[in-house]
Write a structure and sequence with these properties.
With 588 residues, this protein is an alpha+beta fold. It is 26% helix and 21% strand.
C-alpha cells in the first residue's frame, strides 16, 4: 500500500517543501476541474494552464462523449439499482452521476475544502478553518440522532422490526432527489470565491478491510465502497478517507476490485450524502395516505394525513437498499461526520456476514486497576509488606532504567516523577516523610505531590488532593488490573461506559443541614410520597409507571430528576409542593 496516496503518511526523513507540495496539488486540482469543463482558480498556474489549453479541451470532449460510461465499481452499483427497481418504469430508475470530481489520492479533499488563497470557508452546513495541523471542520450537525432514523427499502433482504420499511417507489424518488441537490450544495469550496464557482459531485473510492490476512493461510479481504457527495460536503469525504484510506482512481484497472479476486470479498457498497432530503414531504416521495396505508406503515408513520407533513418529520435519517447479491446503497440525509464513518462500518459488517468466517468486531472495554484510599498513613498495616519482594531484586533486574540514590531508592531515568522505593516502608502524610530501614539504619526521604512511588511488588502510591476539600490523602493503585471487555455488541451497548471512571458519577461538595433528624425525616417523606396523581389530565402517558418510588430500581437517575423538577405537565399543587422543598433537602 502506498501510505502517502492512501492516508497521507510520509517517511519520517521526508524534507519536501510543504508550500511547494500544496502548489502542485492546487495545479492538479485545476487540471481536473478544467478537464471536467468546470471553472478554475488559476492563481500562479495561469500560464501553464493556458499552454495546456488545447490538451484540456481534447480531454474535456472525451469526457463529454463518455458521460454515460461508468467506471467498473459504479457500473456494478448502477446494475444493482436497475435490477432492484426493475418493477418501476425505466424513466423512474435514477442514474449515478456520470461526471464527478474523483478524489484519487489523499489530501485532494482537504485542499478542496477551503477557497484558494483563503484560510476559512463558511456555508449553511459547514465552517472550515485552515490551521497549522491541517484543516478544522465544524459541520452544522455535530451529533447523531438515532430514534426513527434507520430506514430500509422493501424488496431486498428481510427488514428487522426496529427499522422502518420504505416502499420501492419512495426509495427511487429519494434516490433521484439525492442525486439532484440544490445548486448551492454543489459548490466546491475551493472555487467558492469565483463569480461562477464550480458545481459538481465529488466521488471517492474506499477499500476497507473485512477480514485481515492470516499468514500462510489466506490473504486480506476487503470490499469496495463508493462515496458520492455534493461539492459543499467535500469535508465529509476528507474525514472518511483519513480513517479508511483513499482507494485510488476507480477508472484505472489497478484499482478495480473485480480484477483483484484474491483480496475482494465480491461485495460493493455505495454511500450518497444528501442533507437536503428532510425537506421533502411524505406525499412528494410517494408515501400513501393514512387511509390507504397498511398497519406497519401506520405504526412507522410511513403515511400522511396532511399534505404538508415532512418525510421522517423533517429529521435526519438514512435509507438503505441491499440484497443477497452483496450490493448495498445508502442515502445519508445529514452531514454529520459520524454517519459516514458509521456507514462504512455497517457495510463492512454487511460484507462480513455475507462472506462468512469473518465478523465486524464492534467491541470496547477498559483495563481497570483497583484503587484504595489509605488516608494519611501507609505501611502501618502488615498486609502492605507483601513477602517475596525486595528492592535489591528490583535493582538487579531493572537497575539500568533508574538512577540509584545514596538513601537506597531509585529515580526513573526517563520519567523523574517515578520513584522506586522499598516494600517494607512507612509513609506519613502529616510529616510528609517516607521511611524504611537498610541494615538496621532508618532512611528518610520527603513525600511529595506529583510523584508516583512504586514498590517492588508494583503497588503505586501517590498524594492526591480531595476534589472539593483542602485536605490531601494517600491513594494506592494495584499493580494488576482486570480487563473488562464487551465483545460483539451494538451501538448504545455500553462499550464506552466500561472505560469511564466511577469517580465521574460522584458529586463532591459541602452539605448544609439545619437539624439532621428533621431533614432526614423530610427526605423520607419525599421517598414515600404518592406520585401517581401528579399529572394534569391528558399528560398521564409521560410516565409509564407513575407508582414507582424515587428509590425504585426501576427508576433511573434521569427519571428521578424529572420527577422532582417542576413541569407544565404537572398539577399546580404538585409544582407548589416541589417548590417548597429546600435545596439542602434535595442535596441530601
Amino acid at each position: 500500500m502506498d501510505l502517502e496516496r492512501s492516508i497521507g503518511f510520509r517517511q519520517q526523513d521526508d524534507d519536501r517543501d510543504e508550500e511547494k507540495e500544496r502548489q502542485k496539488l492546487q495545479l492538479y486540482i485545476n487540471l481536473k476541474l478544467a478537464s471536467s469543463g468546470q471553472p478554475i482558480v488559476a492563481g500562479d498556474n495561469e500560464e501553464f494552464l493556458h499552454t495546456a489549453q488545447d490538451l484540456l479541451k481534447s480531454y474535456r470532449e472525451k469526457n463529454r462523449l463518455l458521460t454515460d460510461y461508468f467506471c467498473p465499481s459504479d457500473q456494478r452499483i448502477q446494475s444493482f439499482l436497475e435490477r432492484y427497481l426493475k418493477d418501476l418504469p425505466a424513466d423512474q430508475i435514477p442514474r449515478l452521476p456520470g461526471m464527478t470530481f474523483v478524489l484519487d489520492r489523499h489530501g485532494v479533499a482537504r485542499e478542496l475544502s477551503i477557497p484558494l488563497g483563503e484560510d476559512e470557508f463558511h456555508s449553511d452546513i459547514i465552517n472550515s478553518y485552515r490551521v497549522k495541523q491541517g484543516v478544522l471542520h465544524n459541520p452544522a450537525s455535530d451529533r447523531r440522532t438515532t430514534e426513527g432514523s434507520f430506514h430500509i427499502a422493501e424488496g431486498g433482504l428481510p427488514i428487522p422490526g426496529d427499522k422502518k420499511a420504505v416502499p420501492l417507489e419512495t426509495f427511487a424518488i429519494l434516490l433521484k432527489a439525492a442525486l439532484s441537490p440544490p445548486d448551492e450544495l454543489l459548490i466546491i469550496p475551493f472555487t467558492a470565491n469565483l463569480e461562477n464557482p464550480a458545481k459538481m459531485f465529488i466521488s471517492l473510492l474506499l477499500r476497507p478491510v473485512v477480514c485481515p490476512e492470516v499468514p500462510a493461510q489466506d490473504a486480506e479481504k476487503n470490499l469496495e465502497i463508493r462515496f458520492f457527495a455534493p461539492g459543499n460536503l467535500i469535508s465529509n469525504l476528507d474525514f472518511v478517507e483519513s480513517i479508511f484510506g483513499n482507494g485510488g482512481n476507480p477508472f484505472l484497472a489497478e484499482f478495480d476490485a473485480a480484477l483483484d479476486v484474491e483480496h475482494w470479498t465480491g461485495h460493493t457498497g455505495c454511500v450518497i450524502l444528501a442533507p437536503h432530503l428532510p425537506q421533502l414531504t411524505k406525499k412528494a416521495v410517494g408515501l400513501p395516505h393514512f387511509d390507504d396505508a397498511n398497519s406497519r406503515q401506520r405504526d412507522e408513520q410511513m403515511c400522511w394525513k396532511d399534505e404538508g407533513e415532512l418525510y421522517n418529520n423533517g429529521m435526519s435519517f438514512k435509507i438503505t437498499a441491499r440484497d443477497e447479491s452483496g450490493v448495498i446503497v445508502t442515502l445519508l440525509a445529514d452531514n454529520y461526520y459520524g454517519y459516514c464513518k458509521k456507514e462504512v462500518k455497517t457495510q463492512i459488517g454487511f460484507s462480513a456476514n455475507l462472506f462468512g468466517l469473518a465478523e465486524e468486531e464492534h467491541a470496547g472495554g477498559a483495563l481497570a486497576f483497583p484503587r484504595r484510599n489509605h488516608g494519611i498513613e501507609f505501611g502501618v498495616d502488615s498486609r502492605t509488606r507483601e513477602p517475596g519482594y525486595s528492592f535489591k531484586d528490583v535493582v538487579e533486574r531493572y537497575g539500568a532504567i533508574m538512577d540509584i540514590q545514596p538513601e537506597g531508592y531509585g529515580i526513573d531515568k526517563n520519567f523523574p516523577n517515578i520513584i522506586y522505593v522499598h516494600q517494607d516502608l512507612r509513609m506519613d502524610l502529616e510529616e510528609q516523610t517516607i521511611q524504611w530501614e537498610v541494615n538496621g539504619e532508618t532512611k528518610t526521604i520527603r513525600l511529595q505531590p506529583g510523584k508516583t512511588y512504586i514498590q517492588p511488588n508494583g503497588y503505586k502510591v501517590e498524594m492526591h488532593k480531595h476534589p472539593s476539600a483542602p485536605s490531601w490523602r494517600l491513594i494506592g493503585t494495584d499493580p494488576e488490573g482486570t480487563l473488562c471487555h464487551k465483545p460483539c455488541t451494538v451501538s448504545g451497548g455500553g462499550k464506552s461506559e466500561i472505560s469511564k471512571s466511577i469517580d465521574d458519577t460522584v458529586i463532591y461538595g459541602p452539605l448544609f443541614v439545619d437539624d439532621l433528624q428533621t431533614d432526614l425525616d423530610r427526605v423520607e417523606e419525599i421517598y414515600l410520597h404518592d406520585y401517581r396523581d401528579r399529572y394534569k389530565p391528558g399528560f398521564e402517558h409521560e410516565d409509564k409507571d407513575p407508582k414507582r418510588r424515587p428509590i425504585s430500581p426501576r427508576r433511573s437517575l434521569g427519571s428521578v430528576i424529572k420527577l422532582l423538577t417542576p413541569s407544565p405537565s404537572y398539577k399546580d399543587e404538585y409544582n407548589e409542593w416541589l417548590a417548597d422543598i429546600p435545596p439542602r433537602i434535595l442535596a441530601l
